[in-house]
Design goal:
The chain has about 230 residues and is mainly α. It has 10 helices and 3 strands, in the order H-E-H-H-E-E-H-H-H-H-H-H-H. The protein folds into 2 domains: about 1-75, Arc Repressor Mutant, subunit A, CATH 1.10.10.10; about 80-225, Four Helix Bundle (Hemerythrin (Met), subunit A) (Up-down Bundle), CATH 1.20.120.
Length: about 230
């Protein structure tokens, strides 16, 4: 009987493995997506034991990461591409924000601040995906008035590429979210004070690279622990 039980558990574990792996492959589960064992077990009508075994197998293959107090998450699949995209976006979005600033209206600024207030209000119960959507909405207010259509097109392409590469950086480094909204307010104050274009451009660029730096520091910490 024990052999039958072991075989059944293996079969269910294989089922869970294939089910999760397929959803990672088709990007139903995007990088940063939290894999809740109980939820998956209910979906597959199995216990959490085979799901846990499937998660461990996926972790060994590098498709899933597991962290204390966070749990299992879909791993960043294309880290190098993400780094390159963020580096590029920091430059072009910084330029777009600087060029857009003179065209921002009082209404635009009020809208940006309202979005940032909503981001601040969400910090205590952070939903990384929703926070990222608000983050894009905030930055879009600041760069959409860029009069250079070529730069604006590059910014749009950069954001689209980031979305394809991962669901949310804030899934990996949730502590970055609070600092991010503080930097948003600093950007708004620079615009309202009529800061020099280069000062604003560099501030917007530093804001973007700070998120990248936080992610890279997080990955380096995981690597050291694994070693």
């Amino acid at each position: 009987m024990a052999g039958v039980t072991d075989e059944t558990t293996f079969s269910k574990s294989q089922l869970a493995y294939q089910w999760i792996a397929a959803r990672i492959a088709d990007r139903t589960f995007t990088p940063g997506y939290r894999l809740v064992l109980g939820q998956i077990a209910r979906e597959l009508d199995v216990s959490v034991v085979p799901v846990r075994e499937a998660i461990r197998r996926l972790e060994a293959e590098g498709l899933v990461t597991f962290e204390r107090n966070i749990g299992a998450q879909v791993a960043m699949l294309e880290e190098t591409e993400y780094v390159h995209t963020m580096q590029t976006l920091s430059i072009i979005e910084g330029a777009a924000t600087s060029l857009s600033a003179p065209y921002l209206t009082v209404e635009d600024m009020a809208r940006a601040r309202a979005v940032n207030d909503a981001m601040t209000a969400s910090l205590d119960d952070l939903d990384p995906h929703a926070f990222t959507q608000l983050n894009l909405e905030f930055h879009a207010v600041l760069f959409e008035h860029c009069p250079n259509p070529h730069i604006l097109d590059l910014v749009h392409r950069g954001w689209n590429r980031m979305t394809a590469l991962r669901d949310s950086t804030f899934s990996f480094v949730p502590g970055r979210a609070r600092r991010s909204v503080e930097e948003h307010e600093a950007l708004l104050q620079l615009i309202e004070s009529g800061a020099e274009p280069l000062e604003l451009e560099l501030a917007a660029r530093a804001h973007r690279t700070a998120t990248l730096d936080a992610f890279l520091a997080h990955r380096a910490t995981l690597t050291r622990k694994a070693g």
